[in-house]
Amino acid sequence: MKFNVITLFPEFFESPLKAGLMGKALDGALVEVSFTDLRAFGEGRHKTTDDTPFGGGAGMVMKPGPVVAAIEAVRAEDPETSVVLLTPQGELFSHERARTLSEERSLTFVCGRYEGFDERIRAFVDYELSIGDFVLMGGEVATLAIMEAAARFVPGVLGDSASTEEESHSTGLLEYPHYTRPREFRGMEVPEVLLSGNHAEIEKWRRTRSVERTAKSRPDLLEFADLTPEELAAVKIGAPE
Ligand code: ADE
User: Which of 97, 114, 131 to mutate to test the pocket of ligand 1 (most atoms within 8 A of CB)?
Assistant: First the structure.
């Protein structure tokens, strides 16, 4: 899978992309990343990439000329790439979106800084994504998050391919609690059932904890989760009559 990143700060990505499994994926050429320095497409003597907003108001706006020129330069090299604009106004990124993006051969991320993008830039992108209901100082952190989440679905990037199947969000529920050695830590015991070797009981216990945890931390997810009537009754939403 190929990622291109259009940014004013290519250096921002240096150390995060060296670390851990992402570093390994790059070393092993399972994932490839290239950068386009947006400043090179800036206008005038100062290589300007932003300007004041028409109509007034605070902050600066990314100019369309440099951003669109950078997108066109990337597309000239990589015509099939899908271009992703990172903004808080975009579609909310999710585990499912990470999976579908990972099926693309190439993605190009457009990172802005300042207050936002000139609206006309949107005509030149394929998707617009947000990583949450908060405002970052730019699209770089969002790009890293999306690259990492998508790369996890690329075959070979995670050692154990089952890991993307059971984790939080892949089932529509949050993941169950995990334990490892020691059996007792500061007075807290590992639940007995996990030591029992009874796989059916373990599975049942994990499912119940998953439903409980989702009801507590993310009740909004329950609406779309595939729960049995008993599970629904247990979390007290839409309990059967
Ligand atoms: N740029 C600034 N805030 C953002 C967010 N929440 N998601 C994606 N890109 C952003």
Answer: 131
